[in-house]
Every structure is written in structure tokens, then in C-alpha cells.
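Anyone up for a design puzzle?
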């Protein structure tokens, strides 16, 4: 019955997908369908695994609402999945990278499916308690796994470090602090170029352009941010953090030089070499 119904729908259509997810969520809640049945049917009828996992995610989001939403809904969905002995994360992941999976779960409000302690709260508490960066990295890996994307916590860590670099007790930025936090900042930005460390600095740099430039150079020297990450930050027009335009003016020349320096070098062939290369392809 489910399969025949799915064949009549355009599963790529957002409106039809939403309506389908509502129906599936209600059927799951009323125990008319199992998660295994829903997953199998979506995989068979959808045009790709990506479409199937998207529809499954929307179904979980609707099921969360059906069960009261917020914490109550999350607890109900988590229990339902556990009782069903269904591997929800595997079904939703398919071929996604860690970074893509994190964004995917966030988009549909399904971060709770990862379970375990709230990582952001754990990291913030550790920072407030003054734990060593290496200890915080170990805690992150224990909770999320060594390969998991934790870039969602980048800004909290970067803000903390920035406030230490630009201490109220000092007129000059304490750049030496940056080196201490290298392991933690690198762990947070691992495999995610859009995890902006840079945004933290210009919030507390006291409108001093020289400070911004000094910090950006040090961040690069310590390999906290690669030139690709700097460029991703510069090109991100969605980042509306207050102060970014002023900071861009302060570091524009530095970032431009960095981009030019790392530009791929094109081979410089002379005329004879070009002729020799072309002759290889002449039959």
C-alpha cells in the first residue's frame, strides 16, 4: 500500500515531500508502519539515496512535532528509534561527509539524534573552568569521536581565545596565547573551511586595524587557518557579523597577497617544449 502510494508522488517536489512526511509521521506514531518499512520504501521509490534521506529527515522532524516538539518530542523520537532498533544516523548519512552530516542534521533540527552530552555546553564549561586546550580536545573526541565535525563549536572557542588575546589588562594583543590554543582551534575547524575562526577577532580588537592585521598574520603563521579558509571567510557574504567590513579593510592587502602567493603556478613552456607536447597527440 505504501509503495503504490509513493509511486503516485513526485518525491523531488518539496510540497509533496512535506505532505508525505506528515502522513508517514502519523502512521509511525500510530504504529501502522515501521521505520524499516518507511526507509525501505523511500530507498526503492526515490530517485536517489539523497532524496530518500531528506524525506526520512523531514519525517523525523514531523514525528518530533507530533510528539510535542522541543525536548518532549526529541525524547519521544529518540525512544521510538531505540525501541525500533533502527540505525537512524546510518540511514540519514548515506554518502555524506562528517561536515555535510552535521549541517544536514542541523537543517532539520535533528542534532539530538547524535545523543550524548551537549557538546557545546561541555566545551563552554571546560573553557570557563580554565581547562587546558589539550584536555578539551580529548573531551571532544570522547564525546563526538575523533573524526566527527565539531565546527559548530568553533565560534565559542574563538571568542574565548579572542578575549584572552585582547585582554582588558593589556594595551597590546597577547599573541602568545594563540599558540596555546592551536590544538583546540584546529580540532574545531577540522575538514570545514567555512568554520570561521576569524570572526571572533574583530569583535574585540578595539577598532585598531593594526591589531587585526597582527592577529591574522599570527593565525596564518600558526597554521590555524589556511589560505583557503581565509578566502572562504572573505568571500562569505552571508556573514553579517558586526565589524567585518572594517576588519576586511584592515587585512585586505594581506589576504590578497596570501591568495596570490598560493595561486597555482602554470607551467612555463618555451616554443620547442610546446611543439614536443603537441606532437604526442598527433596521430
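Challenge accepted. My sequence:
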Amino acid at each position: 500500500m505504501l509503495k503504490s502510494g509513493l509511486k503516485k508522488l513526485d518525491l523531488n517536489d518539496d510540497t509533496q515531500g512535506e505532505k508525505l512526511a506528515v502522513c508517514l509521521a502519523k502512521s509511525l506514531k500510530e504504529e501502522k508502519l515501521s521505520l524499516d518499512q518507511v526507509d525501505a520504501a523511500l530507498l526503492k521509490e526515490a530517485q536517489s539515496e539523497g532524496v530518500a534521506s531528506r524525506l526520512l529527515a523531514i519525517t523525523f522532524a514531523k514525528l518530533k512535532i507530533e510528539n510535542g516538539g522541543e525536548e518532549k518530542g526529541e525524547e519521544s523520537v529518540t525512544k521510538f528509534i531505540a525501541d525500533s532498533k533502527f540505525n537512524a544516523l546510518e540511514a540519514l548519512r548515506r554518502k555524506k561527509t562528517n561536515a555535510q552530516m552535521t549541517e544536514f542534521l542541523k537543517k532539520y533540527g535533528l542534532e539530538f539524534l547524535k545523543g550524548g552530552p551537549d557538546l557545546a555546553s561541555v566545551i563552554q564549561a571546560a573553557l570557563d573552568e580554565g581547562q587546558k586546550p589539550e584536555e578539551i580536545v580529548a573531551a571532544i573526541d570522547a564525546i563526538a569521536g575523533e573524526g566527527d565535525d565539531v565546527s559548530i563549536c568553533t565560534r565559542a572557542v574563538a571568542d574565548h581565545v579572542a578575549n584572552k588575546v585582547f585582554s582588558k589588562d593589556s594595551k597590546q594583543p597577547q599573541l602568545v596565547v594563540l599558540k596555546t590554543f592551536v590544538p583546540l582551534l584546529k580540532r574545531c575547524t577540522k575538514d570545514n573551511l567555512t568554520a570561521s575562526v576569524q570572526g571572533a577577532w574583530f569583535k574585540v580588537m578595539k577598532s585598531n586595524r593594526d591589531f587585526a592585521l597582527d592577529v591574522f598574520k599570527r593565525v596564518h603563521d600558526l597554521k590555524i587557518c589556511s589560505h583557503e579558509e581565509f578566502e572562504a571567510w572573505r568571500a562569505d557574504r552571508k556573514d553579517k557579523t558586526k565589524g567585518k567590513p572594517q576588519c576586511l579593510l584592515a587585512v585586505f592587502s594581506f589576504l590578497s597577497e596570501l591568495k596570490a602567493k598560493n595561486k597555482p603556478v602554470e607551467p612555463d613552456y618555451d616554443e620547442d617544449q610546446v611543439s614536443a607536447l603537441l606532437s604526442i597527440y598527433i596521430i
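A detail worth pointing out: The chain has a mean pLDDT of 82.
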